[in-house]
Design brief:
The complex is a heterodimer of chains A (116) and B (120).
Chain A lengths: L2 E3 L4 E5 L4 E3 L2 E3 L6 E7 L6 E7 L7 E2 L2 E6 L4 E6 L8 E11 L2 E6 L3 E6 L1
Parallel strand pairs in A: 2-12
Antiparallel strand pairs in A: 1-4, 3-9, 5-6, 5-10, 7-8, 8-9, 10-11, 10-12
Chain B lengths: L3 E4 L2 E4 L5 E7 L5 E7 L5 E8 L2 E5 L6 E7 L2 E6 L8 E8 L15 E2 L3 E5 L1
Parallel strand pairs in B: 2-11
Antiparallel strand pairs in B: 1-3, 3-8, 4-5, 4-9, 5-6, 7-8, 9-10, 9-11
The chains are: A mainly beta (116), B mainly beta (120).
């Protein structure tokens, strides 16, 4: 079974600064997918970024980028130029295809507070 | 133009009651899911349906019965509600990775707004 670990329950960053959220995972699979989802106070789960394990290049989405280290099973999220609207819970998630199924295994989340 | 919608958004009920949560997606996806988020914010999959067929059942008590009348809808019925059922329930949908032609990212799961269930 896969496990996903987020070792930082809470983090704080000042507006316009950069912050990195950590995520490690454990799997014996070679083909899989990694995600970061954001959950603001509105409760909605919003996709932030996706990474395919077969890709060496790190995914980027505007101010969001990842540092994917496959051998180390590490998948950190970097948020540049932090904005107040980035305040949210951030969940790292692992997905693999098994037969006809795809399921997400989530970490416990990191609560990020962006301050003035 | 809501992609994945759930009703109701809030549900407060007494122990022992039976309740349903409805989910609909207009993304044309083949696969739908139910996740439970507990009071510590931990998210765990409960069920997955592919084209109306149950694919994943993660050892959920049989008081929980999902029903998929068509591939755009996945409802969750809960019998004999217990205090421990209080949680936020999320519906999600994605394209079936087997039929997406391998197009990148098409199996990404998109979530509904969640239903907060409170059992008193």
């Amino acid at each position: 079974a896969q496990t996903v670990t987020q070792s930082q329950p809470e983090m704080s960053v000042q507006e316009a600064e950069t912050v990195t959220l950590s995520c490690t995972y454990d799997t014996s699979e070679n083909n899989y997918y990694l995600f970061w989802y954001k959950q603001p106070p509105s409760r909605q789960m919003i996709l932030v970024i996706r990474q395919e394990a077969y890709k060496q290049q790190n995914a980027t989405e505007n101010r969001f980028s990842v540092n994917f280290q496959k051998a180390a099973k590490s998948f950190s999220l970097k948020i540049s130029d932090s904005q107040l609207g980035d305040t949210a819970m951030y969940f790292c998630a692992f997905m693999k295809h098994t037969g006809t199924a795809s399921k997400l295994t989530f970490g416990t989340g990191t609560r990020l507070q962006v301050t003035l | 133009d809501t992609a994945v919608s759930q009703t109701p958004k809030y549900l407060v009920t007494q122990m022992g009651n039976d309740k349903s949560i409805k989910c609909e997606q207009n993304l044309g996806h083949d696969t739908m899911y139910w996740y439970k988020q507990d009071s510590k914010k931990f998210l765990k999959i409960m069920f997955s349906y592919n084209n109306k067929e149950l694919i994943i059942n993660e050892t959920v008590p049989n008081r929980f019965s999902p029903k998929s009348p068509d591939k755009a809808h996945l409802n969750l019925h809960i019998n004999s509600l217990e205090l421990g059922d209080s949680a936020v329930y999320f519906c999600a949908s994605s394209q079936d990775f087997r039929t997406s032609g391998g197009a990148e990212g098409t199996d990404t799961q998109y979530f509904g707004p969640g239903t907060r269930l409170t059992v008193l």
